[in-house]
Amino acid sequence: MSATNKSIFITGANGYIAKHIIKQALANGYSVVGTVRSAEKGEALAKLVNSDKFSYEVVEGVDHKGAYDQPLKNHPEVSVLLHTASPVNYYATDPLNETILPAINGVKELFDSIKANAAQIEKVVLTTSVMAIAKIVNFQIIGVNHTEADWSPITIEEGKTDGALAYAASKKFEEQAAWKYVEVEKRNFTLTTVAPTFAVGPQAYDEDASAPASTSGMIAGLLSLTPSGYVYPFAGNFVDVRDVAKAHILGFELDDAQGKRLIAGGENFNFHKTIEVIQKHFPDYKGKLPAVDSTQMPPETPFINNKKTNDTLGFEFIDIESSIIDQLNQFFSAGK
Known about the structure:
With 336 residues, the chain is an alpha/beta fold. It has 2 domains: 7-199 and 238-264, 3-Layer(aba) Sandwich (Rossmann fold); 200-237 and 267-334, no CATH class. Helices cover 39% and strands 17% of the residues. The longest helix is centred in the N-terminal third of the chain and has 23 residues, at 95-117. It is globular and about 60 Å long. It starts with 6 loop residues before the first strand and ends with a helix. 47% of the residues are buried. Keywords: Oxidoreductase. GO terms for molecular function: oxidoreductase activity, acting on the CH-OH group of donors, NAD or NADP as acceptor. Residues 8-254 form the NAD-dependent epimerase/dehydratase domain. Belongs to the NAD(P)-dependent epimerase/dehydratase family. Dihydroflavonol-4-reductase subfamily.
């Protein structure tokens, strides 16, 4: 798909991944319409993006009936939609109604709105998560060699007992609802889903650097450890957020990506390795963080097997050491 005169519509435009998608799409020549929760947030984002090819629409609730009707009617030029918006509240007091059902109902409402108001939209890309593919306990992937064909065993009953479990359930059942919709309903668009693993790396815009996003914030959080501090033995598959964004764009650009589940996964990594990277490349932290030896960690297992995705996308992912260095360079620069 040529970017010439092409416009994309992206929900949840203020998100960590979404901002990278916006930045890359604009750089590739696309015009972008993003949804935000308020005009104040929209103006702040427009100032940050600083492009006459970016505009925004206010959508206050992702699952409100008809929430996307007018925003889509306002943009008949849009031919691609990326749905990155998703309710996230790990401390929800009512996980079912605050997280799980809004995600499921939100994707249905969005697809109904596309069908009724935006027949020109040809391709839809949905941001899902590795949590929809594998069982996750304390944010760690359980099991090995998970592929694009796998589904997490989590149930809605399990999800509604806990805020973090609710997010995992919401991603699984939102994605399943999306696939069921395109299977059952007569619609004018193809669907591709992108499931990132543990996304790290810099913010899309330096102005955001001092407020690291959810997953990448855990990397910056290691800087506050002391020499006697405890290093949580977290290990998983890490991926650079810039590659996640690139996967979304190729998800609608490539004909071979249509109708597929894609896993945006990079390489196995852990917090011990991360601290070693910090101490190697940022000498000020030598001796200030716990002494670690990543070779003493349990043998790494191949959590993810996303060969099919890599064959489809056809690009080499950024190595995670570079991701961490870029993220922290940006973070430290913001503090000066």
